[in-house]
């Protein structure tokens, strides 16, 4: 890797390691409050958000930031409207807050670096499991990037298996209507959007659906899944590129991820009863 990409990767590792250390101290011990959209937030979410913001500002002058959390109306408006900058970090400081507050050890810190509105680098750290995912995906950006997807610095790739009752498919709580007679896989529900899709990237799971993910839930995983050979299926509108000036606070991106394009037709008929 050249110096630029080394800087990006080192920054993601250093920042999430530091933030993750404190979050592990808070894990299962903090009280949550309910946001206007019904999701939970804790003081740990807000602390982690500010730590990551401050690190970005001090390291990457002129880069935009799009984030889930904020402490003020001014920051909320600025933080959830996509900026008119060539480069932008999209951050979810604590994906899986409900798991985090209940002591369930699946939650993550998710970072995505976007170039002209499209993610090209993803980094997701899962502190309770000591798992670090990262990947690069140049796509049609015209940039020269490193290649591949990695778990703890080891290359990962999606499964080439055909669906069967010995394979898993991940759902969220809002996509359970997909469970119908003849569904070809066993069902799992992990409670964390990023990890839902990353388990496909490792080959552990053949597919997954998230009915209402926000952009900060998927920006990092979007890169890693595709770099690992997976197929990303947008079920409403295309997730990327993002558009400057658009407020993404209430915009969801219904998504299905599968291990390879050949099995998309196997699962799409089951989507008819799912409301997005």
Task: Give the biggest sheet.
Answer: 7 strands, mixed
Order of adjacent strands in the largest pleated sheet: 3-4-5-6-7-8-9
CATH level-4 homologous superfamily of the largest domain: Fructose-1,6-Bisphosphatase, subunit A, domain 1
In terms of per-residue confidence, which ranges show pLDDT below 50 for 5 or more consecutive residues? Answer: 71-76
CATH architecture descriptor name of the largest domain: 2-Layer Sandwich
Structural summary, described in words:
The chain is α+β, with helices and mostly antiparallel strands. The chain has two domains: 3-155, 2-Layer Sandwich (Fructose-1,6-Bisphosphatase, Chain A, domain 1), CATH 3.30.540.10; 168-273, D-Maltodextrin-Binding Protein, domain 2 (3-Layer(aba) Sandwich), CATH 3.40.190.80. Helices cover 29% and strands 24% of the residues. It has seven helices and 14 strands. The strands form three sheets. It has a seven-stranded mixed beta sheet, sandwiched between helices. Strands 11-10-12-14-13 form a five-stranded mixed beta sheet, with helices on one face. A two-stranded antiparallel ribbon has the order 1-2. Keywords: Hydrolase, Magnesium, Metal-binding. It is an enzyme of class 3 (hydrolase).
């Amino acid at each position: 890797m050249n110096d630029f990409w080394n800087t990006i990767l080192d920054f993601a590792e250093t920042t999430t390691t530091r933030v993750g250390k404190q979050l592990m101290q808070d894990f299962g011990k903090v009280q949550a409050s309910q946001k206007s959209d019904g999701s939970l937030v804790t003081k740990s979410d807000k602390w982690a958000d500010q730590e990551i913001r401050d690190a970005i500002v001090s390291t990457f002058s002129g880069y935009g930031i799009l984030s889930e959390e904020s402490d003020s109306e001014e920051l909320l408006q600025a933080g959830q409207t996509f900026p008119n900058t060539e480069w932008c970090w999209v951050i979810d400081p604590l994906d899986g807050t409900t798991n985090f507050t209940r002591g369930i050890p699946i939650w993550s810190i998710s970072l995505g670096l976007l170039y002209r509105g499209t993610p090209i680098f993803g980094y997701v750290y899962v502190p309770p499991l000591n798992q670090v995912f990262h990947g690069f995906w140049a796509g049609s950006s015209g940039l020269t990037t490193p290649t591949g997807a990695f778990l703890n610095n080891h290359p990962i790739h999606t499964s080439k298996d055909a669906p069967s009752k010995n394979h898993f498919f991940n759902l969220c709580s809002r996509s359970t209507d997909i469970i119908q007679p003849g569904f070809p896989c066993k069902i799992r529900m992990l409670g964390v959007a990023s990890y839902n899709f990353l388990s496909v990237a490792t080959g552990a799971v053949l597919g997954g659906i998230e009915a209402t993910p926000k952009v900060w839930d998927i920006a990092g995983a979007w890169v890693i899944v595709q770099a690992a050979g997976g197929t990303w299926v947008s079920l409403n509108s295309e997730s990327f590129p993002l558009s400057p000036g658009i407020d993404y606070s209430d915009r969801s991106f219904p998504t299905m991820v599968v291990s390879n394009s050949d099995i998309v037709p196997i699962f799409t008929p089951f989507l008819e009863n799912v409301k997005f």
